[in-house]
Design goal:
Layout lengths: L6 E5 L4 E6 L10 H15 L6 E6 L10 H9 L2 H20 L4 E5 L2 E3 L1 H8 L2 E5 L3 E3 L13 H8 L1 H10 L2 E3 H7 L4 E3 L4 H13 L3 H11 L9 H14 L3 H11 L11
Parallel strand pairs: 2-3, 3-4, 4-6, 5-7, 6-9
Antiparallel strand pairs: 1-2, 7-8
Helix pairs in contact: 1-3, 4-5, 5-6
Length: about 260
C-alpha cells in the first residue's frame, strides 16, 4: 500500500475501495500533500480492474473544510506562476476523480466547505447525513470558486451555482439534495447503511458498462440532440452490445441467474 500521510485506503473484498481523508484536526482541509495523494489514489484505483466502486470520505466530525488556511496563506505570498501551478494541480486532481472509470461516491458528514464542495461535485453521487451542511465559501475570503466552478455547475446547474457562489451561504443537507448537490440524505446513524445500499446497486451493474456510461455522459450536454450526438450514441450502443459483458448480461437475464460480475452470495 502506498505510504500516504493524509489519506487512508481500505480495500473491501467486494471490490469497494474506501478512501478516507485523514486530517481530522483541520477538518480534512486539503493542502499540497492531500491534493497530491488524492490524485495518486484515484489514478491507482481507476486503473485497477479489481476495484468496482470508490468511496471518498473524511475522518472525524466533518467531510472537508476545503482549502487549508496555511496553504492559502502560502499561496497569497507566492508568485503568480507558483499560484498557477498550484491551481493546475488542484484542477488535475478534480479531473482525475471525475474521469476515473469506476463509480465514485462521496460520503458526507458534518461540513463540506469551499473546495470540499468541489470534491462532492467531482464524485458521481453523494450520500449525506441530515446533519451535513454545505457552503461554497470562497467569496467570504475575497476569492472565488474558480477551479471547482465547472463541477458545481454540472452538479446543480448554472443558476444555483451562481447563487451558492455569490452568497457563500451555508445550506443544510435537505436543500443540498433539492438542488442536486447530494442524492441521498439520511439520519447520521443510517449513513453507512445508505452508503451500502448505494454500493449494492452499483455492484449489481456491469463494470464495463459503467465505465462506458461515464465516458459517454461526459460528452453529453443539455440542449438539442444533434445529428452528431445521435450518431455518437448509436455507435456507442452498437459497439457495446457485442462485448463479452453484454453477452453475459443478456444470457444471465434470459437464464434468470446473476451475471458473473456480481457476488455469488
Amino acid at each position: 500500500m502506498p505510504a500516504w500521510t493524509a489519506l487512508d485506503l481500505e480495500r473491501r473484498a467486494d471490490g469497494v475501495a474506501l478512501l478516507t481523508m485523514n486530517r481530522p484536526a483541520v477538518f480534512n482541509a486539503f493542502d499540497e500533500t492531500l491534493i497530491a495523494e488524492l490524485d495518486a489514489a484515484f489514478e491507482l484505483l481507476g486503473g485497477d480492474d479489481s476495484v468496482r466502486v470508490i468511496v471518498l470520505a473524511g475522518a472525524g466530525k466533518h467531510f472537508s473544510a476545503g482549502a487549508d488556511l496555511q496553504w492559502m496563506q502560502r499561496a497569497a505570498a507566492a508568485s503568480r506562476d507558483d499560484n498557477l501551478a498550484d491551481a493546475r494541480r488542484f484542477s488535475a486532481m478534480l479531473a482525475r476523480i471525475t474521469q476515473t472509470p469506476r463509480p465514485t461516491i462521496a460520503r458526507v458528514q458534518g461540513a463540506a466547505l469551499g473546495g470540499g464542495v468541489g470534491l462532492v461535485c467531482a464524485c458521481d453521487m453523494a450520500v449525506a447525513s441530515e446533519a451535513a451542511s454545505f457552503s461554497v465559501s470562497e467569496a467570504k475570503m475575497g476569492i472565488l470558486p474558480a477551479v471547482i466552478g465547472p463541477y458545481l455547475v454540472n452538479a446543480v446547474g448554472p443558476r444555483e451555482a451562481r447563487r451558492l457562489a455569490l452568497t457563500a451561504s451555508r445550506i443544510a443537507a435537505a436543500e443540498a439534495q433539492r438542488v442536486g448537490l447530494v442524492q441521498c440524505v439520511v439520519p447520521a446513524e443510517g449513513l453507512d447503511a445508505a452508503l451500502d445500499a448505494c454500493i449494492a446497486d452499483l455492484l449489481a451493474c456491469g463494470p464495463a458498462a459503467q465505465a462506458e456510461i461515464k465516458q459517454l455522459y461526459a460528452r453529453l450536454a443539455p440542449g438539442p440532440v444533434t445529428a452528431e450526438v445521435r450518431e455518437l450514441t448509436a455507435q456507442t450502443i452498437a459497439r457495446v452490445r457485442t462485448t463479452p459483458e453484454a453477452r453475459e448480461g443478456f444470457a444471465a437475464f434470459l437464464g434468470k441467474r446473476k451475471p458473473n460480475w456480481t457476488s455469488s452470495e
